[in-house]
Predict the structure.
Amino acid sequence: MQDQNAASIEPMEDSLSPLELRVRAGYYQLLAGAFVEEPGRDYLAALRAPEVLAELDLQFDTDVTEMSLDRLQDVLACEYATLFTTSGGCPPVESSRLTGRFQQEPFHDVKAIYQRCGFELQPGKFAAFEDQLGVELTFVAVLLENQAAALERGDMAMAKRLEKEIRRFWATHLGRWVRGYATLLERVTEHSFYREIARLLRDFAEAELALLKVKVDDVDGGREVVAKSEINVLFNPDEPVCGGCDHGKQENRVVA
C-alpha cells in the first residue's frame, strides 16, 4: 500500500466563492491541456494571447512567440512524442513516476476514486491511463466545478464533501509526484513551451497545497531514472497455466 504517513491535512480557514472555485478549475484545465494530448491550435492561440502571458507570467522564447501556429503545433507534436510517449522519455503518469511501471497501485486507486465520484475518462486522440497527469488535473477541475455548483444551490454538505475529496486527492496522489515531475520536465525539455508549462505546474502545485492546507512529501523527487518496483504476485507461480488444472478448467468453462 502507499505510505500515507508523510501526508497531513489541516483545517482550511476560509471557504472560496463559486467564482474563485471556477477560476481555479480553469487553471487545472489549462495545465491539463498541455499533457492529456498534443497541444492543439486553439489551445496554443489562447495561451499566446498577451493578456494570458501576462497573467500567468509565462516567459516563452521565440520558439513559441514568433512561430506560426501551424508550425508550432507540428513542432510541439514532435516534442510531446519525444517527452511523453517514446522509450527513454518521461511519461506524465503517476504509476510510472513512483513505481517505474505502468498500471500499478496509483492507477488502480485513482480508477476507484473516479468511479466513486462519478468521473468518466473521456476518449481523446490518445488512449490515456487514469493516473496520467492531464486526467488527474481534469478530475480535480470537474470536482471544483461541481463544488461551485453545490454552493450556488445551497448544498453545503455536498460542497464540503467535494472539498474534502480534492484535498485528499492532493494528499494521496497529485501532491506526491507533480512537483518533482515538474522539475524534471523543466530540465529535460528542449522547447520553451514545456519549460514554462513545467514551471507553471510546479508553482501552481505549491500554491494549491498551501491553499488546501495539505502537507505531503514529494515522493517523485524529479528523478530521471525510476527504479522498477517489485510486482506483487497475484497467482500461485507453481500452478499450471495451461488450463489443465481445476482452476484452469473452471475458467475455461466460464469463458465458454
Remarks:
- The longest helix spans residues 156-188.
- The first strand starts at residue 7 and ends at 9.
- Confidence is low (pLDDT under 50) at residues 233-237, 247-256.
- The CA atoms of residues 46 and 246 lie 61 Å apart.
